[in-house]
Amino acid sequence: MKTNNRVHRSMTSVAAACVALALLAGCSSSGGGSGVNPSSNGNNTTPVMPTPASTPDTTPTAKSVESAGNTVMATGNAVSGIGKQIQDAPIPLLPADARNGAGGVVVNAGETVGALGAGVRDGLGQMGAVDNPVGVTVASTGNVVQKAGDTVTSAGQLVGGLGTEQLSPLAPLTTPVSGVVQKVGGAVSAAGGKLGDALSGGPVAQLTGSTSTAIVPLTTQLTDGTQNAGAMTGAGAPMDGLLTKVGNTVATGGSMLTNTNAPVISPVGGVVTEAGKTVAAAGVLVQGGSGGSSGGNPLGGVLNNLSLAAGGSTVASKSDGQSSPLGPLTTLLAPVTGLASGVKSAAGGSGGDAKALPLPLPVGGLLR
């Protein structure tokens, strides 16, 4: 029995020692209990994310083209939004299939416009950041054709829907026509896919690559010329400020339209907003820097403070301390009136001759 007890005590001691070693190993592998060690540890390896490569900046011209592409895309989105509203709207005497087909035509037409804008944005709008911006834009033509084919297909569905429900007597005429139109649409969509493949490689890619090699430095030189001219004449900074402030005001108005959530009107707000951004971004073409006085973002913080009709600092006050009902309008026009005052002061103070500045007619009109 004593021998058995000694054996038992020995086995217990060995087991305790193993547990202690395991605990020590666990503490060592966990970095002193402070967390998981990002380095490899046996079979457990925590992947280390590589540092993302820096993306080259686009040229000033590309920034303006990118904004224009976004405006075209916003237009397509607005059109598609109207098409969805058509699909959801109960139209008397129009069968549901016909209504869906009609809405589909508008939706796909908007997507066609959006595909065109995306090609401009992702291609010419990225000059200086991508190797072949012209090629990207040209290859996107395939997407445009494909979406156009989808629009034709939806037109065929519309024709077929005109022969359903209470208009079923028209089915013998509408059904075969619908089939033909949908086949044409399918063929156009398939051709669009093949066209995109053909334009993105082979001799076309070589041609667009050579064009991109020539056009990127050319646009940069032209922009440098306009910026130098703006600096020499003194018109660059005022024009940049004018475009930025007017663009901000237009974009703010577009955001207000979007926030109305009204049919037809709300989708147009996105178009107005992007148009304002395009105007603001154009300031960099006449004034060096990144996007004018807003520093890289053509809209600055304007879109974060849209409460033009709210109280507080956005409402002008009368001399007696009461809020003026024209406060929102005064606030909306403040960027333009403030800019006019600043440009006039830069021209020589209140008594200076504002017409001496080589500014366009709209600016001269503001200063009179």
Outline the structure in words.
With 368 residues, this protein is mainly α. The chain has two domains: 60-221, no CATH class; 234-296 and 325-368, no CATH class. 65% of the residues lie in helices and 0% in strands. The termini are far apart. Residues 1-8, 18-55, 290-333 and 339-368 have low confidence and may be disordered.
Strand content: under 5%
Number of domains: 2
Structural class based on helices, strands and sheet pairing: mainly alpha
Largest sheet: none
Short description:
With 368 residues, this protein is mainly alpha-helical. It is 65% helix and 0% strand.
Primary descriptors:
65% helix; 0% strand; 368 residues; 2 domains
Can you lay out the helices and strands and say which pair or pack?
Layout: H1 2-29, H2 60-88, H3 96-122, H4 133-139, H5 141-161, H6 171-199, H7 202-233, H8 236-259, H9 265-281, H10 327-346, H11 361-367
